[in-house]
Amino acid sequence: SFCLTSSHFLYPTLPLVCVCVCEREREGVRGTMQSLLRVFKSNGGVVRASSHQACTRLLASKVVVDSRRFDHPFVSKPKLENQFDDDLVLTRILSRYIPREHQEYVFDDLKKWGDRVVTDVFELGEEAELNPPYLRQMNAWGERQDVIVTAEAWKKLKQVSAEEGLISIGYERKTGSSSRLHQYAKLYLASSSFGMYNCPLAMSDGCASLIERSQAREGDEKHIRDSYAYLREKALPRLTSRDPSLFWTSGQWMTERDGGSDVGGSITTKAVPYSIIGEDKEVATHALYGLKWFSSATDSDITMTLARPVSADTVVEGDVIDVSDLEVDQGSRGLSLFALFVKKEEEGDLDSAKLVDDRQLNGIKIQKLKNKLGTRQLPTAELILEGAEAMVLSEKGRGVPEIAPLINITRLHNSISACAVQRRMLAIARSFGKDRQAFGRHLLDHPLHCRTLATMEVEYRASMHLTFDAVRLFGKADVGEATAEEKALLRLLTPVAKLWTGKAAVFIASEGLEAVGGNGYIEDSGIPKHLRDAQVLPIWEGTTNILSLDVLRVFQKTPEAFPALFKGVEDTLYRAASRDAVAALSSVEKDLLQLCTARLVSLSKLVKREGTNFQKMMKSQSAFCIEARARTVAFRIARLHSAKLLLDHALHTADDLDFEVARRVIMMGKEGPSTTFDAPLLDDGLTQVSNDRRLARAQPSVMV
Predict the structure, then answer these.
(1) Per-residue pLDDT tens over the stretch 163-220
(2) Where are the alpha helices (DSSP H) in 85-235?
(3) Helix or strand or coil: residue 255?
(4) What gap in Å lies between CA 667 and CA 686, rounded to an integer?
(5) What predicted TM-score, i.e. pTM, was given to this entire model?
(6) Is beta strand 381-392 parallel, antiparallel or unpaired with respect to 364-369?
(7) Are 593 and 585 in contact (CB under 8 A)?
């Protein structure tokens, strides 16, 4: 044992401390005792040690102190600025597409929203990610409840969606044909902060558009007209409301056990007319029976779904109807589109957490929630429909064509989300690279790191211009201002933009995560979710191959889309050759313009030759040869149109860096996103390194 006695005048009340150290315990308390001795002696303490051997050795040994701190931040956290002000690509695109008389109104709204998506809305998205939905199927007494419990943040995101007009902007049409640009720009800014609530919003937009456009249709059967009239009265005002207490969202339940995009071959849900059942419903026309294997946004208030209607002339004997015995037509010709409310009564409290038994659900039993790679915030369920009351919205055999406009809108939303994740990962990688030091320099001072971020930036710009051009055309078509040529081009660009941006999103999300290094792989950083969520983008609403086959259908059914595509390229080349355009350029910009135009001409000829070959093959029934090349041709069309748009943009800005971006897209490989790494560089290596640096830092030479 030994004693510590205070003799320093600053510590007159320091008590006498007696410590006993036995041989067995000395190693365990050694560090603590040494620290205590050091502090005590430095303040005038006197140490009196006994002759105990352990204590003597303890006092004789040196004290090792590590003054470094390990509890402070060791690397700067990536910082997100106002997502509108900080996005030069978006602001430039909107400045060109939105008329000046509307820009102040739109830009003010987007600027305010740009702050929210990195503050309170961002926090809601994070909370929704950390608190995924779960299913309360039974209570303690074995009574079935089928309640999907979602986080409070998820419910608040629905409120925010209504208040900010994320759907209603497109239907209020305060800025005419620019309203869709305003709406989709706002959705783009929200997407990466919104906890995947952009998914139900996408389907709600498609549902609202489908219901709204039904008003102008003629020739439908009376019961179909009545169903749409009811939806226009009851559902459309809610789907497009800014009042959170009224706002509805929509689901889209098509995928069944066989899954996939072949809905004609996989859907087995049967729709039994109430005339067969012997019931007379005020609104519903059919009762649906079947299994929906993957129902996105299961907590929505209304949903669209496909099913096979049983003929109303079917004769059923006896009092019991076995649905499995009822005959239906197979293939796409046997499908019809239906709408159903998730609850039996569409009025009243729409909070799914307050549903206490299956009687309050509309003939729906929730089997399980899907355990997905990503989009974990979004409730996706496997459902059994047992007599769900539904309204028929199409004639038999017209289900797929009827729902196609809805799917085209959700594909545009998919492209917007893909652009958003690209932008967010670039913002994170840039912020990290500005502060992070390695090998004596900041990451953004390393040429190879700059080349990586520059490649990501080029991919991102191509995606943005391609997507927002499609949105521009959609906005014009939405208000009846699009020409026949523009409508045909929109039909082509919708699948092309979706397949291109979906692939680019996964590539950039992966590269962005890698650019942050080990921290990018840690869930606590919030970065891995972007890669997990991005992987759904090439899958949902049609995989890359399915969309490539859709491009082939455009060749067959909308052949006028391709002359429209090439006319746009020719118009850009004509402007590039005009004296006024060339006169304003520097010698460097003129050289880049000459290179871009020559390469664009070559690419255009290549795509045109492919298209001509396709049309010849179609006439000769060479289906296998056509299908095998569909993906390559689809990517080339995407590259051609995005390069055309980027060159057009460069002519507008007269910025040498914009010309360089156009050149790199024109030169990228044939297999689409991620192949800008293969783009040949100019002879002047220093110029390329300088351009890489500017692209990596998003620094233009001209602000427009």
Answers:
(1) 999 999 999 999 999 999 999 999 999 999 998 999 999 999 999 999 999 876 666 7
(2) 88-97, 100-116, 120-130, 152-163, 169-172, 179-191, 198-213, 222-234
(3) strand
(4) 19
(5) 0.87
(6) antiparallel
(7) yes
